[in-house]
Specification:
Layout lengths: L8 E10 L2 E11 L3 E5 L6 H9 L6 E6 L2 E5 L2 E2 L7 E4 L11 H6 L11 H10 L16 H13 L5 E5 L7 H18 L2 E6 L2 H7 L2 E6 L2 E6 L1 H6 L4 H6 L4 E7 L4 E4 L2 E4 L7 E7 L4 E4 L6 E10 L3 E8 L4 E7 L9 E6 L4 E4 L1
Parallel strand pairs: 3-9, 3-10, 7-8, 8-9
Antiparallel strand pairs: 1-2, 1-4, 4-5, 5-6, 10-11, 12-13, 12-15, 13-14, 15-21, 16-20, 17-18, 17-20, 18-19
Length: 349
């Protein structure tokens, strides 16, 4: 039997808060390799988790191990500087008075900073920046370049684990995607695992190997992106990931679902009885008022160029969100019909 690989990060029963206010509530998490995205809305505890792992917040309970070495637990807490962790804050936090090269070298132990030009060039190459960038200053760089330099600084000491605190949130959409993919390539090149904190589900699903969905200081589901999206373990995950419309209804003895959208096909596994159906926006097909489907009224339209999201009120009063191609967008106030495509995820109760 092959030996179990030591994860880059292992958290067990982690609790943390501020004063009498609890934030993290008994979290468990393994980060074996690659990128793990901690995904959740603002205020759910994502940054507190990252700061506890980094050593900036003292947990109230539980254990944290980095590359097999316990850094929190049994009444001990290893200082942040000795945890062997790279940290990239939200704004990069480069020193404006230092050149790029000196910023990157700052991430090295003090004893290694002299004669570090080769290490700096290697770190810049990992984040796909030319070695000549070492002579520039932060104000001479774009936002995406600054974030790559911040990552190079975190990678220069060759940590086993890198923490990224919403590092792309200040970038525009196109630059965010480009920088995110460059960062993931750099992490793989360095052989470093990473924890990426984000509230952007598209970012989490497209960049991460594993997604941990957090709500109110707890993980509702930890799995690969496809599993989290297609097979949510909790109604709150389904509602948050993909903005699924949650509709009450029932499942009959033959496994068919009945709700405001009529009879729908339900993914096997949910017992007969009262149920809640998570209908993803791309499963809803908007048709003309004389077509087949459930009648409804368009409330508003969000146009994105390549497609649009249509909010529709059904005759029963429930509201749903459908995604439709850009060449078939109705107007607010239009009467339409809505059909459901494919199997719908259902939750008992």
């Amino acid at each position: 039997m092959a030996a179990e690989t030591t994860p880059a990060l292992r958290i067990r029963g982690l609790e943390a808060g501020y004063g009498a206010t609890p934030v993290l509530r008994g979290l468990d998490l393994d980060v074996p390799s690659g990128v793990t995205a901690v995904l959740g809305s603002s205020g759910c505890g994502k940054t507190t988790l990252l700061r506890a792992v980094a050593g900036f917040v003292t947990p109230g309970g539980g254990t944290i191990a980095v590359a097999g070495t316990e850094v929190v637990g049994a009444g001990r807490s290893v200082p942040a500087r000795r945890r062997g962790i790279g940290y990239v804050p939200q704004e990069g936090a480069l020193f404006p008075h230092l050149s790029v090269g000196r910023n990157v070298a700052f991430g090295l132990p003090r004893s290694q900073r002299r004669g570090s030009a080769g290490v700096v060039a290697e770190a810049l190459a990992m984040v796909e920046l030319d070695a000549a960038m070492a002579e520039r200053y932060p104000h001479e760089l774009s936002g995406g370049q600054q974030q790559r330099v911040a990552l190079a600084r975190a990678l220069a000491p060759r940590p086993r684990l890198v923490l990224l605190d919403e590092p792309f949130s200040s970038l525009d959409a196109g630059l965010r995607e480009e920088t995110g993919r460059a960062v993931v390539r750099a992490l793989h090149a360095a052989g470093a695992a990473a924890v990426l904190v984000t509230h952007d589900q598209g970012e989490a699903l497209s960049l991460a190997d594993q997604v941990a969905v957090m709500v109110q200081g707890q993980f509702l589901q930890v799995a690969d992106p496809a599993t989290v999206y297609l097979s949510p373990a909790d109604p709150r995950v389904a509602s948050f990931i993909g903005h699924a419309s949650m509709l009450p209804g029932r499942i009959d003895a033959d496994g068919r679902g009945e709700c405001a959208l009529g009879t729908i096909t339900v993914r096997p596994g949910t017992p007969p009885g009262a149920a809640r159906f998570a209908v993803r926006s791309e499963q809803l097909q908007v048709r003309p008022p004389d077509g087949e489907g459930t009648p409804g009224e368009v409330l508003d339209v969000s146009f994105f160029g390549h497609d649009a999201t249509i909010r529709i009120r059904l005759g029963t009063g429930e509201q749903i969100a459908a995604r439709t191609p850009a060449d078939a967008v109705p107007l607010a106030g239009d009467r339409v019909r809505v059909a459901v495509l494919g199997e719908v995820v259902a939750f008992a109760g």
